[in-house]
């Protein structure tokens, strides 16, 4: 009788552990979904502000076209091409804002100070949102590699989460503008 009780207790504890691990994995997947939604929102915000700025008549036609096309491509990119399109938008922003003259041109335009701060904030938030997403992906992948998760198929049929890899280096001139303005755009 004692052996039966001990066996039941051990099976119960194993069941609790497996249930807890499956719940943890589920929470990590929910965290990935939330982080991806936040990343998508920041990428969309950056592209929208860039498109708005490109059509404001602040830049020369070539710079406006480069920014507009890169932002438009990033907004419309399919999932499998999104990382490349977002990287190209980052590169376009760095090319146009290679020096402080373009930032000053934006600031001098009507409503330009607010637009420059919005763009700076959007450009700064993208790497943070991407980092949160990729950290959640890393944690879920690490848990999915554990033997217990694999042996008992606790991940079910869910696909392994993928990190979002893109070039998100901000333009130096926008960073300099934010530093000169006391970093005002990053705290919105």
From TrEMBL:
Superkingdom of the organism of origin: Bacteria
Organism of derivation: Streptomyces sodiiphilus
InterPro entries: LemA-like_dom_sf
Name of the molecule in the record: Membrane protein
